[in-house]
Amino acid sequence: MRQLVFATGLLIAAASGASATGGFDCMIDDANLSFSVSGTISRGMGGAILGYHAEADLLAEVVPEALRKPDLSAGLVHHWLDHPELRLHFYAETAGDDPYASFDLILKTEATEDELTYAGDYVLSVFDGETGEVFTLSGKVTCGGE
Q1: Which helix (H) or strand (E) segment is 17 a member of?
Q2: Cα four-point dihedral sign 93, 94, 99, 105
Q3: I need a labelling partner for 28 at 20 to 30 A (CA). Which of 3, 35, 59, 101 fits?
Q4: Cis ω before 99 (30° cut-off from 0)
Q5: Could you give the CA distance from residue 44 to residue 19 in angstroms, rounded to a whole number?
Q6: What is the DSSP letter of 76?
Q7: Nearest one of 75, 77, 86, 81 to 45, comparing CA atoms
Q8: How many other β-carbons are positioned within 10 Å of the β-carbon of residue 59?
Q9: What are 104-127's pLDDT values in tens digits?
Q10: How many angstroms separate the CA atoms of 101 and 19, rounded?
């Protein structure tokens, strides 16, 4: 009997936890950057990101070759979800024998009239360690949620 009560409690907890999460995705596709991120975000606990997958392909010629496809698997360094704003901040650096370079991407969006759609701007700063130059690229970003 105890096992049945415990199993029922786990089932209820799992079901209520599922309703406390939602999905999100953002896209950038312009002459400078092809970027996508999708993941799961909690609706409580400060909007914690529970998991995400992000890919970037830097298309601008000014970007160092070693940073054209940065590894963003651990690159989400800050996020903010407080309706009507959704903000994401990604950071990555080159690794190994590649010359030092860094990727710093900030997405700032606000909800549109359709509450499940966010639109805004991105700013990407790329530091080239070989030349000491910082390149700043910007453009539009769209996000969606559920």
Answers
A1: helix 2-19
A2: negative
A3: 101
A4: no
A5: 10
A6: E
A7: 81
A8: 14
A9: 999 999 999 987 899 999 999 999
A10: 41
